[in-house]
């Protein structure tokens, strides 16, 4: 039955290979089970409920991806947007987390609509590559400063804005150790390097970090505190449409880019060129995959977590031989099993997840090398996008600076015709936001 439904023979794979690939993917992304509750709890959300929501939406979204699209791609709440949700939208702008979930839901509906009408690939092709690169690298820096702050390595300083923390504190030393272990294990291609680093620091924290042990296995906690607690009306009345736009744009680039990248690596996607560097997916399985990750955002908001997206760690499973949705099905089952490890998740301190954030930040910064350094009208907007995110503590401001400067520089240098209409529209929206609403 599995052979026939997932087309294992046609894909040149076996049940054993797909199961191993699924386990590999799960190990490489299981860190989100600890990191996501840690981040969203900073927004006032109950960590145990977020843990359950994370497990459920990851399982559901990955199941849809595997069964409906037959893709070896796993989904879970995305890194970067969860930090933006907690630290920028809730802590920085002062919105309550229920309204922020409402904004995620609205962005998911827009995302799904764009996917259903077939404009998703066309829109992402219209956005300049330099801004897409800047967004990825900028989110990396944003995660980096959050990680350094959470670990105690960087602290506030009224004279210089930031300063070096107390390196004699055990929490700081454990965070440094965790980071080095994660990097070393990843370099040695050890599966689950990030997860191992988090668990190592957590275990050591019981002995030298003042942490308390609450057990490992239990029945899943209640999801009631976050389930269906999204406030759509509050999101609309609060006027946080610019937050919706940020969620939408990052979801667009992150999810679509990941899906296309992993699918290409697995040799699954035929593509039709629509211009220089502007390919759009034409395969039916890819269109179904795009639908699956769009629907996952809506499901995540309902369950009680920030935007859900396809995970680039799925490439590890593809590397292990995964070629069909059976790989994703295995990942989905493992996320359900993880529901029973809530006590372990609640015992993970923020300085244990900070090294994972910092390493993800380092990986995301690699994209900055793709900027076209020979053309300042492309490079400068990308760099402004990167710099504005950590220094204004807002992904929204980074994206705004990028689009506005891109449109302005192209206009001033006589290259306005090379700018896609979507760029002018987005730049105008952000200009109106600053003109009438302030920075926010």
UniProtKB/TrEMBL annotation:
<keyword id="KW-1003">Cell membrane</keyword>
<feature type="transmembrane region" description="Helical">
    <location>
        <begin position="324"/>
        <end position="344"/>
    </location>
</feature>
<feature type="transmembrane region" description="Helical">
    <location>
        <begin position="290"/>
        <end position="312"/>
    </location>
</feature>
<feature type="transmembrane region" description="Helical">
    <location>
        <begin position="168"/>
        <end position="185"/>
    </location>
</feature>
<feature type="transmembrane region" description="Helical">
    <location>
        <begin position="419"/>
        <end position="437"/>
    </location>
</feature>
<keyword id="KW-1133">Transmembrane helix</keyword>
<dbReference type="InterPro" id="IPR045018">
    <property type="entry name" value="Azg-like"/>
</dbReference>
<comment type="similarity">
    <text>Belongs to the nucleobase:cation symporter-2 (NCS2) (TC 2.A.40) family. Azg-like subfamily.</text>
</comment>
<feature type="transmembrane region" description="Helical">
    <location>
        <begin position="351"/>
        <end position="369"/>
    </location>
</feature>
<keyword id="KW-0813">Transport</keyword>
<dbReference type="InterPro" id="IPR006043">
    <property type="entry name" value="NCS2"/>
</dbReference>
<keyword id="KW-0472">Membrane</keyword>
<dbReference type="InterPro" id="IPR026033">
    <property type="entry name" value="Azg-like_bact_archaea"/>
</dbReference>
<feature type="transmembrane region" description="Helical">
    <location>
        <begin position="129"/>
        <end position="148"/>
    </location>
</feature>
<dbReference type="GO" id="GO:0005886">
    <property type="term" value="C:plasma membrane"/>
</dbReference>
<keyword id="KW-0812">Transmembrane</keyword>
<feature type="transmembrane region" description="Helical">
    <location>
        <begin position="94"/>
        <end position="117"/>
    </location>
</feature>
<feature type="transmembrane region" description="Helical">
    <location>
        <begin position="381"/>
        <end position="407"/>
    </location>
</feature>
<dbReference type="Pfam" id="PF00860">
    <property type="entry name" value="Xan_ur_permease"/>
</dbReference>
<feature type="transmembrane region" description="Helical">
    <location>
        <begin position="232"/>
        <end position="250"/>
    </location>
</feature>
<dbReference type="GO" id="GO:0015207">
    <property type="term" value="F:adenine transmembrane transporter activity"/>
</dbReference>
<protein>
    <submittedName>
        <fullName>Guanine permease</fullName>
    </submittedName>
</protein>
<feature type="transmembrane region" description="Helical">
    <location>
        <begin position="192"/>
        <end position="212"/>
    </location>
</feature>
<feature type="transmembrane region" description="Helical">
    <location>
        <begin position="20"/>
        <end position="43"/>
    </location>
</feature>
